[in-house]
Amino acid sequence: xxxxxxxxxxxxxxxxxxxxxxxxxxxxxxxxxxxxxxxxxxxxxxxxxxxxxxxxxxxxxxxxxxxxxxxxxxxxxxxxxxxxxxxxxxxxxxxxxxxxxxxxxxxxxxxxxxxxxxx
Length: 119
Hints:
Blueprint: H1 2-65, H2 68-82, H3 91-98, H4 101-118
């Protein structure tokens, strides 16, 4: 009888040891996945920072390339190359040509009245 109790206890102990070992392996696998995920996040963060630096560099280069003087030089070069005279866009002249005076006056009056109502 004692040997059957010992064999039952040994089976339980072996089962307990196997279960503890498998649980430890499972926890190690989860830990390894978390470490791999943290590594991937760090790599993406490095890539993001590099892209932000590239954008800043391009922004500075764009500001240097598109200064007011540079735009005037490009316009003059375009006019010389194509034989075209470029005229600046005149907002008021365009509005006066496109809309009748009564429409403009109504819009101005309506805007002034709504400003008075707000105050």
